[in-house]
Write a structure and sequence with these properties.
By secondary structure, the chain is α+β, with helices and mostly antiparallel strands. It has 1 helix and 3 strands. The longest helix is centred in the middle third of the chain and has 15 residues.
């Protein structure tokens, strides 16, 4: 049986680091999207305030298989 997948873009953030931002994004996407199969990091950026990094952000392309 063939399956069809879809890709959606989300942005997630964390004060801890890029790895944590990815984890936060996947966990949140999995609450709304069924059958999340994977993701890739499209971009990364930081928010800086007074010379210090205060937030890490990732743009994720999340792949999920559509239900029949």
């Amino acid at each position: 049986m063939a399956s069809v997948a879809r890709v959606t873009e989300i942005i997630a953030s964390s004060t801890k680091g890029f790895d944590d931002a990815v984890k936060v994004g996947i966990e949140r996407a999995s609450k709304t999207l069924d059958n999340v199969q994977g993701a890739w990091v499209k971009d990364q950026k930081v928010v800086v305030k007074k010379g210090k990094i205060i937030e890490y952000r990732v743009g994720l392309m999340v792949t999920f298989v559509l239900n029949d």
